[in-house]
Amino acid sequence: MGERSVPWPPGTPNWVDLAVDDAKAATEFYGDLFGWDCEHQSSRDYWLCKLDGRDVGGIGRKHPGTEHLPSHWTTYLATEHLDRTLAAVTAQQGAQVMEPRDIDPYGRMAIAADPNGAIFGLWQAAEHIGTERKLDPGMLVWSEALSSDYETGREFYTSVFGYRAEEISGHETRYAALYAADQPVAGTGEFHPDFPPGTPPHWLPYFSAASTDQTIDQVTSGGGGIIGRPLETDFGRMAVLTDPEGARFAVIQLG
Q1: pLDDT at 2
Q2: What gap in Å lies between CA 57 and CA 207, rounded to an integer?
Q3: Which domains are delineated in the chain?
Q4: Is the pTM of this model over 0.70?
Q5: Where are the beta strands (DSSP E) in 52-138?
């Protein structure tokens, strides 16, 4: 996808960030893994991560109210009116996890959860529209909401964001691509059988990789792990990984 100067359509994943206990160590892990240059923001305990000068995501300590949660990646979904979207979230049996806050002059954010408990963010852009969606290694290329209750997840996200859901056949689990502005922007589905019992519902971000197998080796040698086995998909070879604090993310070597 090309460079973009206007906000993403509502419901499009437009940012990701990592909430961890040791943010500095996480910047070193992901910087080595993806070639990110993570710059500390002096105004808050947050690192802005860039690739070739382009913003790709953030790393920081866990948000207030989420300190008890395991370390995790948060996918932010674009909204034109954050308060109205939060009202729709609660009307559809979701929950507000962190109240709205202004990140001047960049935009306005909040943290929410779907009825299954998967946490996601909302971002109402001002000066910062979010990350670009390029296919270069280290860039965000996809994100999906996963749980054991597919029907509840699909109903929630289509109701709140107005997505068109298109079920994808030929998978071991039920899955749907979610369309905004006639483009597939995200997905929702059931846990793959390789996921360990007790895995909590979550949004899983995918980052492009030059080599999935080399990335797996680098993650495991750096204190992270792999969930299940690498998979061959219609889009490329992918794997679900964990960083040293256990936060889940996926990589895909695009075909």
Answers
A1: 43
A2: 11
A3: 13-125 (3.10.180.10), 140-254 (3.10.180.10)
A4: yes
A5: 54-61, 72-78, 95-103, 107-113, 119-125
